[in-house]
Amino acid sequence: MNNKTKNILFYICSTLLVISAVLFYIEKVYTPYLYAIAGAGVAVVLLASPYNGENIRLKRLNIQQSIAAILLPLSSYFMFKGSNEWYVLLLVSAVLILYTSFVRDYELKKERENGENNKPSE
Fold first, then answer.
1. Which residues does 20 contact at the CB level (< 8 Å), separation at least 6?
2. Alpha helices in the chain (DSSP H)
3. pTM here?
4. Which of 85, 84, 45, 51 is nearest to 68 (CA)?
5. 33-46: pLDDT as tens digits
């Protein structure tokens, strides 16, 4: 799966995740199914984006992103169960995804700049 496809799938599933979380208060019949599908889609995209470099901080961020990806389907389980713990898991997952997205972009940019500065000049 290329990056463009991953980005499109991530945006669609994230939007569906937010919509289904809001719709949970209005219509509780089909909302858990929509939430489960969207959460699984986001989890697949996040878990299919590994980091294979040597930067320890990026490896740590990838682990945090994987934890957030695992929490989304787990939160849908609690939504099906009817308990309110799914709110907490969704919140923790959203905070982790938000944090890792900003810091990961910053670290990748810094890594690219360091790689360009270390190249021998011709």
1. 31, 32, 34, 35, 38
2. 3-23, 31-47, 56-81, 85-117
3. 0.83
4. 45
5. 999 999 999 999 99
